[in-house]
Amino acid sequence: MRRARRTRFDPQLDMAPLIDVVFLLLTFFVFALLLTVRLDVRDIALPRLASAQAAEPQPVILIKLAADGIVHVDNQETAWDDIADAITSAHDARPDASIILAIDADAPFGKAAQLTELVEQAGIDKLQIVALPKDGSGESAPP
Fold it and tell me: Are 67 and 103 in contact (CB under 8 A)?
C-alpha cells in the first residue's frame, strides 16, 4: 500500500490586511490634523493681578475698547481707520511709553485681536492688557 504524499504547509503571514489598517490609521490622523484649529497666540506681557503693588508711575499710552466697539486712544475717541495713526503718533511722542490695552469684558474678541495686531504692526513691543482682579475689587482697575 502506498502512502499518500502530503504536501507540507508553510505558514505565511498575509500582509495585505495589516497594510490596509496602517493606511486607514494614517488617513485618519492626516484628516484629524487638517481639521484641527491652529491658534495664533501673540507674545504679550500680562500683568500679575493677585500680587499687584504700587510702582512708580511710568509713561503709558492707554487704549480702551468699549463693549460697543468704540476705541479711545489716550482718552480721545478714535475711528477704526485712524487707530494705527493715533497709536503711532502717540508712541512717537513718548517712545519709552508702554501700551496699556483695557478691553471691556463684553467687547467683541475680533476687535481686541485687531487692536493687538495694529499695535504689533506699529512695531511696539511693550503691550500690557489690564483686567480687574478675581475678587472684584477695583484696585487694579485701568487708569
Answer: no
For residue 121, the enclosing domain spans: 60-140
In a domain, 108, yes or no: yes
* Radius of gyration of the CA atoms of the chain, in A: 30
101 DSSP β-pair partners: 63, 129
DSSP state of 134: T
How many percent of the chain have pLDDT more than 90?
Answer: 11
Which candidate, 109, 133, 135, places its Cα nearest to that of 42? 109
- Return the CATH number at 131: 3.30.420.270
Q: How many domains does the chain have?
A: 1
Provide the pLDDT confidence category of residue 140 given band limits of 50, 70 and 90.
very low
